[in-house]
């Protein structure tokens, strides 16, 4: 894992001192809230429905045990004993007092973490595949590239006041677990003639105008990557619209100007930008890459085979929550933060400490946070899996539902968020509880349900196999359903099924969709998404809107 | 202090540019020594004229409009070595960004100078320290 250098530490200490002074100026009244706002936003501090909210970056989703413990300590000391992991690999504290925030930032700084650029019209926290460095099928570890981009984008003097926010994601696998096609820039690391480089996608994004990113360049070699990114963002900074915030994201810039014109401008700008780099970035990249060297894997699976064979509960947990690791005696374990009925993505400080302890004792001191709001032990020896399962069971963390109907992404919605138009957490809780009661989700198999509480789509509903969008219709919550979305390598925006549902109708509607799928699938191997692609929306619409189908028939 | 205030690493000062300047949008007269660049202007049209310019003022109509930072970078990349000024609604907290992007100085009005006195700018006058870009560019 990347270890902070003296430079990183000094930078962060200086930055935190600046913010402490700004908070003091706000509290003594010499800064108005209007003047303070851009300053706090640059440091991840939002003003939400009920309180301030501090959004802390977990760059490329990677944490060690000490960092996780510090997140727990911060939750206990300055918040209400829990934190919320988000869809962009951040953790949010929902109840800090303004006067405490500088101390929280200093506490983060002690473990090499920060809240810089987790808000504002700037390059946001760089996200990456949560199985990075561990996945069996990976081409290259995306984290060194993501860390290089973190350093380049942090405090970048040119790009702190862009037309709108700017999100970058990196994957090193053809499976694309980072939803790169839904980012302002998505990077897919590929190998060409023995050299690693990136396929660069631009102009993806969800929100009120969802778009899938387009390929801007097939291959940018790593030494050319920062100047190339700089060219893209510089072109956007000048060309992006500033007259309408809803048309200010680069997806609109690309849509209005065309990908060919954007490519022409970027290629032109790139020549200037390339000349400003002399290879120092690649020397740093070499050091960063060394920090991310794989741990020394230990051979041997111990009694794992017998443990797996003997206990059906353990076997079910393993089958559902693990993924193939690059080393045969290891596995990647995803720990669900989606216990049925719980708030998706929330973890208590005790749970954080349990996860830290397990990472330290068994998992080479590494943890990951996924955009699907779960926690991952990326390097877990199979011989320790049983002990880890037992420890997780004791902490309420052994829910075996990864990738299933109750593994729901949900934004904070009206329970916390100032932008929300509807609740999303309770909808997620009720859907999960329903599937638990029905005992159906194993039979249903892979199903991604994603819920957003407003049109900004933080819950990624557009790329859910079933997406739910909560809106306000004349003061009443109304939930639109989209079908057939996919956040994978061949990303697809889901299609709206029809009129929305009232709050107390939406869980039933989801159950009807799932039962319709079970009735028409061509066997247990055909997933919900595959069935939808085969049949189209008609049978699903028929079950959602039976009355109107009858009306049409009559 | 009345009139414009010029902020540099040394402190606040009065305007010392006595000449006139022309807006780039109108096309550049052959004898122009100073030019005013608006955020939407294409600075590429200044290529070939940069050697004879003594001052380029890049307008910041709003502190939230960051186009001027990219224009400054471009002008420096094109080889402009003369005086480069960010003029308008630039905040003290943006001073380090302006300097790092290639500006020599910031021009603010008396009202902004009164609300954001020199102490607030001086706090960011150490713009050469803690600079990730300098590290990455060697």
Number of helices of chain A: 19
Question: What amount of the residues of chain B lies in strands?
Answer: 15-25%
Question: Sheet with the most strands of chain B?
Answer: 7 strands, mixed
Give the strand content of chain A. Answer: 15-25%
Low-confidence blocks of residues of chain B: none
**Cα gyration radius of chain A (Å):** 23 Å
Give the quaternary arrangement of the chains.
Answer: heterodimer
CATH class of the largest domain in chain A: Alpha Beta
Unreliable sequence segments of chain A? none
The CATH homologous superfamily of the largest domain in chain A: Sulfite Reductase Hemoprotein, domain 1
User: Which value, in Å, is the CA radius of gyration of chain B?
Assistant: 15 Å
CATH architecture of the largest domain in chain A: 2-Layer Sandwich
Helix-and-strand structural type of chain A: alpha+beta
The backbone outline of chain B, from C-alpha atoms, is globular
Give the beta-strand count of chain B: 7
Descriptive key words:
heterodimer; A: about 550 residues; alpha+beta; Alpha-Beta Plaits; Sulfite Reductase Hemoprotein, domain 1; Sulfite Reductase Hemoprotein, domain 2; 4 domains; 6-stranded mixed sheet; 5-stranded antiparallel sheet; about 40% helix; B: about 140 residues; alpha/beta; 7-stranded mixed sheet; 5 helices; 7 strands
Structural features, described:
The complex is a heterodimer of chains A (554) and B (138). By secondary structure, chain A is an alpha+beta fold. Helices cover 39% and strands 18% of the residues of chain A. Chain A has 19 helices and 21 strands. In chain A, the strands form 4 sheets. In chain A, strands 16, 17, 18, 19, 20 and 21 form a 6-stranded mixed β-sheet that branches. Chain A has a 5-stranded antiparallel β-sheet with strand order 1-2-5-4-13. In chain A, strands 3-14-15-12-11 form a 5-stranded antiparallel β-sheet. In chain A, a hairpin with a 4-residue loop joins strand 4 and strand 5. By secondary structure, chain B is α/β, with parallel strands linked by helices. Chain B has a domain at 1-5 and 36-72 and 102-126. In chain B, 25% of the residues lie in helices and 22% in strands. Chain B has a 7-stranded mixed β-sheet. In chain B, helix 1 links the parallel strand 5 (55-60) and strand 6 (83-88). The longest helix of chain B has 11 residues, at 67-77. The interface between A and B is medium-sized, with 38 and 31 residues.
